[in-house]
Amino acid sequence: MIRAALIQLRSGRDMARNLADASALIREAAGQGATFVSTPEMTNILEPDRPRLRSLAKPEAEDESVRAFSALAKALGLWLNIGSLALKGEAEKLLNRSLLFSPDGSIVAHYDKIHLFDVDLPTGESLRESHAYEGGAEAVLVETSLGSIGLTICYDMRFPHLYRALAQAGAELFTVPSAFTVPTGQAHWHVLLRARAIETGSFVLAAAQGGKHESGRETYGHSLIVSPWGEVLAEAGTEPGIVIADIDMAQADLARARIPALVHSGIWP
After folding, report:
1. pLDDT reading at 123 higher than 90
2. In sequence order, which ranges of the chain are alpha helices (DSSP H)?
3. What does residue 111 show for φ and ψ, rounded to 5 degrees?
4. 79 and 107 in contact (C-beta within 8 Å)?
5. What's the rounded Cα separation, in Å, for the pair 195 and 201?
6. Residue pair 213/46 in contact by the 8 Å Cβ criterion
7. Three-state DSSP class for residue 174
8. Is the pTM of this model over 0.90?
9. Of the candidate ranges 65-69, 140-144, 215-219, the one whose mean pLDDT is the lowest
10. Half-sphere exposure of residue 264, counting CA atoms within 13 Å on the CB side?
């Protein structure tokens, strides 16, 4: 049995304050017995001013939050998924990178968000995540003492083939750290996350940003832990905080035995 905790944040424009807020909640989760903790997308900063964001972002090896979270995972003896950080890449663009720390504080995996959100809205507003971020090129599956974990980020959840491929490769649990907007969250958040769990027979852990940020952006919150059968085991509201559930990884095998869709998905086309 694994006690899993999701940290819901309302990250702002001050990296030091965001680090302190996240660290305090991670410690609180560990105090409640959590052995696996996940934080949202953009744990270190939610900054709409891209020139300012570029000026603040550091490479992974120089980022203060990476060092701090490594030390925290080791001090608390837990598996820690930092949902994503804005980091400086080798080129001019940034990386939207998820990191998984083991209980000894080492980074055992990192994943760069593959699917970037580029859209022209009916309002005339244009969003281009690809203008600021370099997209990842590889799906990431991590074998841990807890089980096999597939790392994904936010917009990835709209691409079921990614989850199917990871599940067929052995993933029993997915992390889906996010910073969903309120309109899309109200429409799609629960149904997409439950669908990814049901169709792969996997646990889905989606830590989210929530509430009105100092930049003016409003995120949906509702961090979710979903079972392989699609049941919502734990859910947050919109405020920063923690949600916890005890999960039995054997339930993934049971769900897949009852509905063997992963086996049948290769039949056609």
Report:
1. no
2. 15-31, 50-56, 64-76, 129-132, 160-168, 182-184, 190-200, 250-258, 261-264
3. -135, 130
4. no
5. 10
6. yes
7. strand
8. yes
9. 215-219
10. 8
pLDDT at 262 over 80: yes
Give the 3-state secondary structure of residue 236: coil
| Residue found under tokens 């690809």 | 130
- Taking the C-alpha atoms of residue 56 and residue 47, their distance in angstroms, rounded to an integer, is 10
Question: Which two tokens mark 184?
Answer: 């899309």
Q: Where are the domains of the chain?
A: 2-112+139-259
- Nearest CA to 53 among 102, 24, 114, 94? 94
Other CB atoms closer than 10 Å to residue 3's CB: what's the count?
A: 17
The pLDDT assigned to 119 comes to 78
Q: How far is CA 123 from CA 108, 120, 126, in A?
A: 42, 8, 9
pLDDT of residue 120: 77
Angle at 11 between CA 176 and CA 131, to 5 degrees: 70
pLDDT in tens, 55-107: 999 999 999 999 999 999 999 999 999 999 999 998 789 999 999 999 999 99
CATH architecture of 2-112+139-259: 4-Layer Sandwich (3.60)
Cα torsion 230, 233, 236, 242 to 10°: value is: -130
Sign of CA pseudo-dihedral 54, 59, 64, 66 = positive
Tell me the catalytic residues. 41, 113, 154
Tens digits of residue pLDDT in 157-172: 999 999 999 999 999 9
Instruction: Specify the 3-state DSSP secondary structure of 43.
Output: coil
What burial class does residue 129 get, using C-beta atoms within 10 Å of its C-beta: 0-12 exposed, 13-18 middle, 19+ buried?
A: middle
Q: If phi over 0 gives left and psi between -120 and 50 gives alpha, with beta otherwise, what is residue 48?
A: alpha
Q: How many residues does the chain have?
A: 269
